[in-house]
Write a structure and sequence with these properties.
By secondary structure, this protein is α/β, with parallel strands linked by helices. It contains 22 helices and 7 strands.
């Protein structure tokens, strides 16, 4: 694992180009879809050249089909749209392969351990993520002498920890801020351990093209009996991870380890600030030799330069004392800020949307209509009304009724049906324009995520970690947060 990866200057130039593209669009990516009608988003944020190419419902439907649903839907009628979207694609991290490292490049010359596809006890998505992450972490840990202990930050239900402990035999400490999660992780691991031999047998047979017998039937295809894996190499603890946590002390406590153990700090979809904290802890703790982190929930990042913030989970946010963006000195000097709506957008998946050809739920349009009613009848609540999810409604009238009941809103309940019908008629065409607006705004999601990830990689490079990398680990149509940040200290080998 001697590959040095990309340099500081290369990352700075890429960030300069990305920011130059984003700078005219910060208000656009930070707009709220709730205000689509009240604040005239279509006219406010889309250039006249784009709007001129779609002047009726048929144009909008055609634009969505050719620009988004068809990979090769080029048409001279939408040249401005094609040019605008193409420029954005070229700013995505996935477009710049020179900044990415493949797993094969990272573990060059090292023999991979056999991967088993064990789908029980988790969804197909989680299975995909766990298999690939566990295999990568195993390769990283096996490259050290002596092998590292693994600390799984944000352990949750123990999906990754269980696999690393049971399949690969590593000693793993799962840490989660929620005590209930740590108990559930141990319970799940006990069930998984009891079923492990049967599950691995079935996976091995399937990998050889043999259809295993139904569960409960004894298989004749097992070459030899296997010993049940030990539970002793997987422990959990409930802690909030910050820069003051001492992994070495925790490992001594839970594994009765003597001396100073080497640590591989990993995390699969570490939420919000936890991903950034893991990078900081990796740098500050000498016993952390390897980092492998996949972050998520960008909306929960604590920004250094963004002030207008709202967080539903205030208790969690109050526990965060450090900033999660920007991490790099380069972006700090430029006082780069994202904004909460931009971070919310960064967490969305254009790949999944395109793969499923999925337009926004009708509730988004209804919610924007509801905001028109707010502006008319309760203007003091504009931009303040928190509705949340409304389930099982039959049309706009029923949606409004359920909102009124949920919010215990007398003024909303008093709005007459005639006004609701008139409102729908007045804005009937806007539903189609909203769909197109939603898609073009979502096309910025990979750019915003690229900014966050490049900032994290640059932070590590600025601190002198030459062996730090961004790895495109998962299939983005299966797992939207598919990039891993990996770093290896010089003395890890």
């Amino acid at each position: 694992m001697s590959r040095a990866g990309v340099g500081v200057g290369q990352l700075q130039r890429r960030l300069d180009g990305l920011l130059a593209f984003l700078n005219p669009h910060w208000d656009f990516v930070n707009c709220h879809m709730v205000n689509y009608l009240t604040d005239s988003h279509w006219r406010t944020f889309l250039p006249e050249a784009l709007r001129a190419e779609v002047s009726c419902k048929e144009d909008v439907v055609s634009a969505i089909e050719s620009l988004f649903w068809q990979a090769d839907g080029s048409t001279s009628k939408l040249s401005e749209w094609e040019s605008f979207l193409a420029k954005g694609v070229k700013e995505r991290l996935s477009f710049h392969s020179e900044l990415l490292t493949t797993v094969e490049q990272l573990i060059e010359g090292q023999e991979n351990a056999a991967q088993l596809s064990i789908r029980e006890f988790m969804s197909a998505k989680k299975c995909h993520e766990v298999e690939l992450t566990a295999a990568l972490v195993d390769s990283l840990v096996r490259s050290t002498k002596p092998e590292c202990f693994i600390v799984d930050a944000g352990d949750g239900k123990g999906y990754l920890s269980s696999r690393l402990a049971l399949q690969y035999g590593h000693r793993v400490l799962g840490i989660d801020a929620n005590p209930e999660n740590t108990e559930n992780a141990l319970s799940r691991n006990r069930k998984l351990q009891r079923a492990w031999n049967g599950l691995t047998e079935r996976a091995e047979l399937q990998s050889r093209g043999i259809t295993p017998k139904r569960r409960g039937k004894k298989s004749l295809s097992v070459d030899s009996p296997k010993s049940t894996p030990s539970l002793e190499n997987y422990k959990t603890t409930a802690r909030f991870i910050n820069n003051k946590i001492k992994f070495g002390d925790l490992l001594v406590e839970h594994f009765l380890q003597t001396g100073t153990p080497k640590v591989c700090l990993t995390g699969l979809h570490t939420c919000g600030n936890l991903a950034a904290t893991c990078l900081q802890v990796f740098h500050e703790q000498p016993d952390c030799h390897i980092l492998c982190n996949i972050g998520c929930c960008y909306h929960l990042l604590r920004e250094r330069y963004s002030t207008q913030e709202f967080f539903g989970n205030k208790a969690l946010m109050d526990m965060q004392t450090d900033f999660g963006f920007p991490l790099s000195q380069y972006l700090q000097e430029r006082k780069v800020r994202l904004g909460r709506n931009a971070r919310m957008l960064a967490a969305q998946s254009i790949e999944r949307t395109l793969d499923a050809k999925e337009l926004p739920n009708i509730s988004l349009y209804y919610r924007s209509l509801l905001e028109v009613l707010v502006s008319r009848h309760a203007p003091h609540l504009k931009n303040e009304l928190q509705v949340g999810k409304v389930r099982k409604f039959d049309g706009f009238k029923d949606y409004v009724k359920k909102c009124a009941e949920k919010l215990k809103s007398h003024w909303l309940a008093a709005v007459e049906d005639a006004e609701l019908e008139s409102l729908q008629q007045e804005y009937s065409m806007d539903k189609h324009y909203l769909d197109l607006f939603y898609l073009v705004r979502m096309s910025f999601a990979p750019l915003l995520e690229s900014l966050i990830l490049l900032d994290r990689l640059l932070y590590l490079k600025e601190l002198g970690y030459e062996r730090s990398y961004l790895i495109d680990l998962f299939d983005p149509s299966i797992s939207p947060r598919h990039f891993a940040v990996v770093a290896i200290k010089a003395d890890a080998d």
